């Protein structure tokens, strides 16, 4: 293997040039054939039209609904699951958010929750994040959203708990066995890219309306990152360590419990972190099936386009996300620090921990007993001033910026999006299919080509080929813009720690702020257009790309940069000749993640004028007779995602090899 | 070890003192006034009433008033559930939803749940009439009065061009919740327009709001009763008149949308339960003006649904009494 790699190394230069030439040849051939066959066999389907596949999906859905009460699977399986999860959610809600056991308030009031949050953050992290947690949770109360926030927290905690219950064992298994990993991966892809709207309605059929369905919807979306990261963590434990354990006569079980798990703890905690972030991203969607909490406030405020109130609630979600993110990140860093610093700290920690525990217990007791500590005092005045500030800012932007923004929108739309879209939608389906397969094979190898072939075949089968191509055009344009932003800001952040510190909270906010909160002003600026959808996708996807590229740039060895400086390179040369080429694998990873994140915004795009697959999914959720088409459109999004993921990953492996 | 224990004890003692001090100046205890609260909330024979709340303000207005009356006059415990239509109807079968209080047509759902599964029954009309159609902002109707007739639309098509409409006029469609015949209409009326899917009510409202403010050319799908009409009184464009059956073949539709008699749907179980809440739902009727008033309280004046309902109920006691007599 090593020999083969060495042999091919000198050849890569030649092959890279020829690969570029092949890609160019494919594109030229496409343009020529497009000119000849334009408008033929494009497989268009009108908004209200259905294919047989869609009708079949409808029938399946109907028959499940009709047999719900007699089917033993429901009576003895789904109902039991629902009962367990419902009890879990209700239990946590009774503790922190909902009046319970004849009391007008929950068991633990705000003071107790703030105390617990601070104590736990300190115990698992450090005092700085504890302070942040206390401040953050108090801020939620000052916003006038205490109960809503606690409902959201209760739901998030139960969803993450259930998700980890499955995710960590599955992740460990996938980490130990390649076969399990291969089997799991497509399922995980499916869970992450299938739009939630598609399975939201059926979920309520299986698990009824309420906490259980909302939790399960969240679990489906939140578990995959934890599974993937756990598997990755187990895999990245050095081979030699495992071999050493083996040679000492450790059994499989011992090797797992004493070596693999402790050594991968830090990364596993990052998986928990990603799970939490994913769960918080579901808050507004779950509100559509009556999940209590901040999501409801957002959805309700937007019915009357009350951006201020929606922003206030969105901000609460952001605050909660940042607190939970920083605490879990600190927890994973502490694992590392604790291991290194040894036991000297421990002797100090124990009495302090005990004392903190007692303080927390007192706070909990107070908040259980006294009204002032149970119900958050005040009317949430800060919340209403946040709301009115947000309103003023939005109105100002709408009044003063729309001239500039329209010109920008029209430029991108006519210059980039329209030509590309017509190339994709007006080409015959077989031509686009062949081009996709060929590009896959050239960029990612024959395996990626084969995957592309399967995906193209299935895409045709879904009956929404033309819509898929429209969506694909917007997706590619959005990804290109995401990468432009990613490189610009990523390099900037990677080169300066100060910039990184300043920008990071904004990036976090962009990732967890419910899209509609900022989409209402965008709608005023850009109208209901594909461009608005692209902007929405960029806001959501660019932070990921930026963060990955920043990390990549920072990972370039200091000495290399210094060497370049000493040879007289200026800043521009250092960036373009040293830092970017050396973080090439980060760039490919950023493209991959950027694309997947853009795809996950397709449905939101459908809500603001993108039409195509996103609209099909939303309409399928809202209209019974379009359910099957919505499901097909959801599948098409998954297929697009899988195809691009495989091609970019294969390309990335090639680049880094 | 000994020092550690001593430290520990000192800490605990200190905290206990602190705790006691705090307790002493504690203030009102939880549950002190609970007996008073319980008195007014005697649930009577009504029990729990699960009311679906579909996501638009007009519906919210209906639900707010019915819930208010059920709680205050009938002593029911009302659980409002925020759900999309499809999910709400599913809830009839699973027993989690008792009533849908504003239904727009939905013949497919009626067939599925009322005729086939028999889990739901109709509970009469709400008195509201639902209009669906094409609307233009008021400034446009004022400056070009003839635009409100479909025959003249082609004359103005070029003005409605946007970046999305591919050289034709743009007809902005699309709250995805409602059936639209607009693509067929454009084709069959030979209009030089392209249907562009805005995709949500939010997007439509924002488009019309901006159009009125900046005097832009927008024509799009909208409906009444809707709170936004009280902010910007959109003008409906006349399409060829609706006649029964003219929309039977979806591909050949060339007529206006029918006037929807909005109605109420309840679960079959709820209808047989003898709950006073069922009688309330069945008797509940009011006018478009009534709904617009409450919807305006909620959407424009930003009152909570409860406060909005209270205000309307107090001003219209006679109407409410007729529902619960």
Automatic annotation (TrEMBL), chain A:
Belongs to the binding-protein-dependent transport system permease family. Residues 149-328, 468-648 form the ABC transmembrane type-1 domain. Pfam families: BPD_transp_1. This is Glycine/betaine ABC transporter permease. GO terms for cellular component: ATP-binding cassette (ABC) transporter complex. It is found in: Cell membrane; Membrane. Its main location: membrane. Keywords: Cell membrane, Membrane, Transmembrane, Transmembrane helix, Transport.
TrEMBL record, chain B:
Keywords: Signal. Residues 50-314 form the ABC-type glycine betaine transport system substrate-binding domain. One of its GO terms (cellular component) is ATP-binding cassette (ABC) transporter complex. Residues 1-26 form the signal peptide. Transmembrane segments: none annotated. The keyword Signal applies. CDD domains: PBP2_BCP_2. One of its GO terms (molecular function) is transmembrane transporter activity. Pfam families: OpuAC. Gene3D superfamilies: Dipeptide-binding Protein, Domain 3 (3.10.105.10), Glycine betaine-binding periplasmic protein, domain 2 (3.40.190.100), Periplasmic binding protein-like II (3.40.190.10). The keyword Signal applies. It comes from the Bacteria. This is Glycine/betaine-binding protein. It comes from Streptomyces aurantiogriseus.
């Amino acid at each position: 293997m090593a020999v083969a790699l060495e042999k091919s190394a000198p050849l890569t230069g030649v092959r890279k040039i020829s690969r570029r030439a092949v890609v160019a040849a494919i594109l030229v051939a496409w343009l020529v054939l497009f000119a000849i066959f334009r408008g033929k066999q494009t497989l268009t389907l009108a908004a209200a039209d259905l294919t047989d596949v869609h009708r079949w999906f409808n029938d399946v859905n109907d028959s499940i609904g009709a047999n719900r009460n007699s089917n033993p699977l429901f009576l003895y399986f789904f109902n039991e699951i629902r009962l367990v999860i419902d009890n879990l959610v209700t239990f946590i809600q009774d503790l922190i958010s909902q009046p319970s056991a004849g009391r007008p308030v929950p068991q633990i009031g705000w003071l107790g929750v703030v105390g617990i949050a601070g104590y736990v953050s300190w115990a698992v992290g450090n005092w700085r994040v504890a302070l942040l947690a206390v401040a953050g949770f108090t801020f939620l109360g000052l916003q006038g959203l205490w109960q809503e926030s606690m409902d959201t927290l209760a739901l998030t905690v139960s969803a993450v708990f259930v998700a980890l219950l499955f995710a960590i064992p599955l992740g460990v298994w996938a980490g130990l066995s390649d076969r399990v990993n291969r089997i799991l991966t497509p399922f995980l892809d499916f869970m992450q890219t299938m739009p939630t709207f598609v399975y939201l309605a059926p979920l309520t059929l299986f698990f009824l309306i309420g906490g259980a369905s909302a939790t399960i919807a969240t679990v489906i979306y939140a578990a995959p990152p934890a599974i993937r990261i756990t598997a990755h963590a187990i895999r990245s434990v050095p081979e030699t360590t495992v071999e050493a354990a083996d040679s000492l006569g450790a059994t499989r079980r011992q090797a797992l419990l004493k070596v693999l798990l402790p050594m991968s703890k830090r990364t596993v905690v990052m998986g928990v972190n990603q799970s939490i972030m994913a769960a918080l991203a579901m808050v507004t969607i779950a509100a559509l099936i009556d999940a209590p909490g901040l999501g409801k406030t957002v959805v309700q405020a937007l019915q009357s386009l009350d951006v201020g109130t929606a922003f206030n609630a969105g901000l609460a979600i952001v605050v909660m996300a940042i607190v939970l993110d920083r605490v879990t990140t600190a927890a994973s860093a502490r694992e590392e620090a604790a291991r290194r610093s040894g036991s000297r700290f421990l002797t100090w920690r124990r009495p302090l921990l005990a004392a903190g525990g007692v303080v927390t217990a007192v706070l909990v007791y107070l908040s259980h007993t006294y009204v002032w500590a149970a119900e958050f005092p005040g009317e949430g005045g800060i919340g209403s001033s946040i709301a009115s500030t947000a309103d003023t800012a939005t109105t100002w932007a709408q009044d003063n910026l729309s001239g500039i923004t329209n010109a920008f929108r029209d430029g991108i739309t006519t210059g980039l999006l329209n030509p590309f879209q017509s190339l994709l939608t007006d080409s015959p389906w077989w031509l686009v299919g062949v081009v996709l397969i060929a590009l896959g094979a050239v960029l990612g190898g024959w395996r990626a080509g084969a995957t592309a072939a399967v995906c193209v075949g299935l895409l045709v089968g879904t009956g929404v080929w033309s819509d898929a191509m429209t969506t694909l055009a917007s997706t590619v344009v959005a990804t290109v813009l995401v990468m432009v932003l990613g490189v610009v800001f990523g390099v900037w952040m990677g080169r300066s720690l100060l910039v990184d510190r300043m920008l990071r909270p904004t990036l976090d906010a962009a990732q967890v702020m419910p899209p509609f909160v900022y989409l209402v002003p965008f709608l005023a600026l850009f109208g209901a257009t594909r461009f608005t959808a692209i902007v929405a996708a960029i806001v959501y996807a660019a932070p990921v790309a930026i963060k990955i590229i920043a990390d990549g740039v920072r990972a370039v060895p200091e000495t290399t940069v210094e060497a370049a400086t000493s040879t007289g390179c200026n800043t521009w040369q250092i960036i373009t000749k040293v830092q970017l080429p050396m973080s090439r694998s980060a760039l490919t990873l950023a493209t991959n993640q950027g694309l997947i994140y853009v795809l996950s915004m397709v449905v939101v795009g459908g809500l603001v004028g993108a039409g195509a697959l996103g609209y099909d999914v939303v309409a399928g959720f809202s209209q019974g007779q379009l359910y099957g088409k919505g499901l097909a459109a959801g599948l098409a999004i998954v297929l697009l995602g899988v195809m691009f993921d495989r091609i970019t990953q294969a390309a990335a492996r090639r680049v880094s090899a | 070890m000994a020092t550690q224990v001593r430290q520990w004890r000192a800490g605990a003692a200190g905290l206990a003192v602190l705790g006691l001090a705090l307790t002493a100046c504690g203030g009102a205890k939880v549950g002190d006034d609970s007996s008073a609260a319980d008195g007014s909330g005697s649930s009577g024979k009504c029990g729990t009433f699960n009311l679906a709340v579909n996501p638009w303000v007009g519906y919210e207005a209906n639900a707010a008033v019915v819930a208010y009356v059920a709680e205050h006059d009938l002593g029911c415990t009302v659980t409002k559930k925020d759900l999309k239509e499809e999910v709400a109807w599913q809830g009839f079968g699973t027993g989690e939803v008792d009533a849908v209080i504003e239904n727009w047509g939905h013949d497919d759902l009626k067939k599925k749940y009322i005729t086939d599964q028999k889990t739901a029954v109709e509970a009469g009309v709400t008195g509201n009439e639902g209009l669906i159609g094409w609307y233009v902002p008021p400034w446009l109707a004022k400056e070009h009065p003839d635009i409100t007739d479909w025959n003249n639309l082609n004359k103005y098509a070029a003005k409605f061009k946007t970046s999305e409409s591919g050289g034709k006029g743009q007809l902005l469609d699309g709250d995805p919740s409602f059936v639209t015949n607009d693509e067929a209409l454009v084709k069959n009326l030979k209009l030089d327009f392209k249907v562009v899917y805005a995709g949500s009510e939010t997007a439509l409202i924002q488009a019309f709001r901006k159009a009125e403010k900046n005097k832009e050319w927008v024509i799009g799908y909208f409906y009444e009763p809707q709170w936004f009409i009280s902010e910007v009184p959109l003008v409906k464009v006349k399409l060829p008149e609706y006649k029964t059956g003219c929309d039977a073949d979806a591909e050949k539709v060339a007529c206006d949308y029918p006037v929807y008699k909005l109605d109420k749907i309840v679960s079959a179980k709820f209808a047989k339960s003898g709950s006073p809440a069922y009688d309330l739902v069945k008797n509940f009727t009011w006018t478009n003006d009534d709904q617009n008033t409450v919807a305006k309280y909620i959407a424009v004046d930003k009152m909570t649904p409860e406060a909005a309902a209270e205000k309307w109920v107090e001003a219209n006691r006679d109407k409410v009494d007729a529902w619960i007599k």
